[in-house]
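Hey, resending since the last one bounced:
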Amino acid sequence: MTARTLVVLRHAAAAQVPGLADRERPLTGEGERDARRAGETISGMGVRPDLVLCSPSVRTRRTAELALPGADIVVEHAVYEAYSDELLTLIRRSDPQVRTLLLVGHNPGVHQLVRDLTQEPGGPGFPPGSFTVIEVAGEWAELDGGRRVARWSPEEH
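The structure tokens again:
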């Protein structure tokens, strides 16, 4: 069986701007800082994504750009407002050559995805800028669970 790594990253803190569409909300200054910190932590763990799937919103794209400078980021429209099962379907469609996949999305979908895959109870939540690293056995197409090997939140670090 081949081990794979899934990293689930929630976008960093976004501004609430009256009159601005939800998809257009930018990161706050704190959010930009936290996105960089998340990326430094991911990199420091030796995790190098082969594929980055990202929601089309401004805040998720900017989080991905700051956390993973130079990475090939694939904007996947289905990630925006997706539920856990929809995110799992997208992940299962990933190329078998991809060993490490990083998904950048939104709550509640990303938090529920982590809970569903790791079978962990609600836990401490999934605040903006948080990520979880999950070790997965087998092919993406067969993904139904994994083992959490790391969790990071800007609130805790």
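Residues 29-44 form the longest helix (16 residues).

Sorry for the duplicate.
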